[in-house]
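[job 0412] stage=fold_complex status=start
inputs:
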Amino acid sequence: MLEPSHQSAADEPPNWQRFLTARAGEQIATRNQSSSDVFVLCTGWAFRFLQLPDGRRQILNFLLPGDLLSVVTIFDKQFQFSAKAVTAIQLSGFVRSEILTRCKVSPGIQSAIGRCCVEESRAAGELAGVLGQRSADERIAYLFLHLMHRISARSVVRDHRYPLPLRQQQIADAVGLTPVHVSRVLSMFRDRRICVLSENVLNVLDHAELERIGAIG
Amino acid sequence: MLEPSHQSAADEPPNWQRFLTARAGEQIATRNQSSSDVFVLCTGWAFRFLQLPDGRRQILNFLLPGDLLSVVTIFDKQFQFSAKAVTAIQLSGFVRSEILTRCKVSPGIQSAIGRCCVEESRAAGELAGVLGQRSADERIAYLFLHLMHRISARSVVRDHRYPLPLRQQQIADAVGLTPVHVSRVLSMFRDRRICVLSENVLNVLDHAELERIGAIG
DNA sequence: CGGCAGTTTGATGTTACTCAATTTAAGTGG
DNA sequence: CCACTTAAATTGAGTAACATCAAACTGCCG
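[job 0412] stage=fold_complex status=done
writing structure:
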């Protein structure tokens, strides 16, 4: 997570930063497209994904406020993925060359980027482990726990209610299931009083059980 | 891929580099273990994997000569994964602090690391896409194509015969299938004259068909 | 020759997908 | 505020893909 630098009202807008917005559902990046900017999500939710030739897609990661679109966009001007807004969003773009220049003089930035790389790589490995080895219930429980963890890091969570503005189709694309099956698993979670997802809020009733199902080694 | 620097016979062994060997099947790294060294595989095959509590494992990547164990080991002393030797191997370890120091003065190294990060992230994303969205045939075809591509980059391939020292169990763990099902898919590939894996060699008979099955968008 | 690890094959079971119909929720314009 | 429209979620029945279990087979090494 990198925070976009604040811009005081009295200053001229700097030429190394620009702001963008997108509406819910709008595509904000396309694979193989080039950009001289590195983007940070400031408000709203988005996701990175791979589009397959037959129309299916794999969501690689949900993006929350403060997240870089992907850390590796710092090193490569070509996107290795596509990205879409889940809700209405605001993005901040920094010119890449500026970041790389600052990197050379600031060990702080350099190590922050390193930590981001580690985190992104860890998350990618975990996702592969979950998709390759675990059942439908476990995948969805894992996704919820993973998101809950990241939401908690950003804001106070009260009464085990987490804001989660996701359609079941998006959950399905993230965990490699069909939306129909996601619906069945969520019904099961609801019946067993584990958690309820409705009206863009995930209400966790039995955190211990959710962990028992979805925790990774 | 980073080449280990050569050490002339007349020199003293440098204190920032050390060599290691491991036998086939030996574990060479364990998750959460720390190491002050960054390792490069010099000879043989190995793989990185995640071990699940129930004993199953997901292979994240096969390592070929010249590969870093993982690029992100440059930024973090704790391994985020475990690793095992497939064949007998030789490893070269560089002390991390030395690499980071050189990074600051050499833009060449810095950008090489950047390219490695991009490549590793791209591969991780593709793996998630394959595991989440594609069928058994497609997963195995993808794995073969991916490995063929990497082998070709390292050595001349004659008569479409690729050295591939993998057990079916390892293929299974890499693509999220059971060894029994891997055997059936390989039988099918053999019957349909697409490719034959035996005696540690993958013989590709119908490259076009293999691509039709396993190519990613 | 015997033992072991790896592979193959068959029979059966389970999980998740597909297709299709129905219900619920969310907008939209009168 | 209410009919109308459309998107999302739920439910059921039938099916396909892959897992599981178990036995037979192969090649290799002592």
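[job 0412] summary: DSSP finds six helices and ten strands in chain B.
[job 0412] exit 0
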